[in-house]
Amino acid sequence: xxxxxxxxxxxxxxxxxxxxxxxxxxxxxxxxxxxxxxxxxxxxxxxxxxxxxxxxxxxxxxxxxxxxxxxxxxxxxxxxxxxxxxxxxxxxxxxxxxxxxxxxxxxxxxxxxxxxxxxxxxxxxxxxxxxxxxxxxxxxxxxxxxxxxxxxxxxxxxxxxxxxxxxxxxxxxxxxxxxxxxxxxxxxxxxxxxxxxxxxxxxxxxxxxxxxxxxxxxxxxxxxxxxxxxxxxxxxxxxxxxxxxxxxxxxxxxxxxxxxxxxxxxxxxxxxxxxxxxxxxxxxxxxxxxxxxxxxxxxxxxxxxxxxxxxxxxx
Length: 315
Fold this sequence. Notes:
The chain is of the alpha+beta class. It has twelve helices and 14 strands. The strands form four sheets. The chain has a four-stranded antiparallel beta sheet with strand order 1-2-3-4, covered by helices on one side.
């Protein structure tokens, strides 16, 4: 059983180092707030008082509060997490000395905006989108999806990393429609990574800005991956996508729960028929207790495959 002294010892752990242990990137006593869709660091840390406050959403508190709210834990569980993850004061101070902060790279948004300003669909892209996946051309056009035939720089910097071609180029935007990154979807035959983001990209929900145009109470399907989202949109449903079951960020969790509560949105999901898909559904169901589950017919791995099958039967 924890004593008041034990609790105070946990509360006294350096809040910025605990924040980094929670996955937040702290620079100059600020970080992107995990409790709302934050593009400019609004979470401020007061190291003298060992407390945090967001000047946008007014989230605030001490070390234990931060763990509770970031991880969705109750008080006792948050204390146990602090004690079990090795975030002792001496260890945290050693990490700080041995690993000085360095500025992290960010996507070259100005360059990416120019790259995506005039979407082009190559023959390989058209074959994949319209022949193989049977997606609606108007959906692809509305989302500004483009493509490349050959390797293409990810930024205007000297000697930049490249998107592997041939590939789709898929824009990710925030709630206000501002471009935040571009994801490539490799279409070639060589052994290369299927999906790539520019270095420094924060993983976002795809088609997030589509939520703003929906009437209150409109059902929204959450999919795992962009192509499944495109299939749902092509079928006439509102949809957003989590890029991967392993990439559901704290800010994404908070945004979804807040949006559901404030806008009366009922989220739905057809989980992929595999372990990661089931894991994502369970994570989302804990966050969104009203999440409605739909079961895919036997023999289909995901929504995209089922949609393509139905479209082919109706041709």
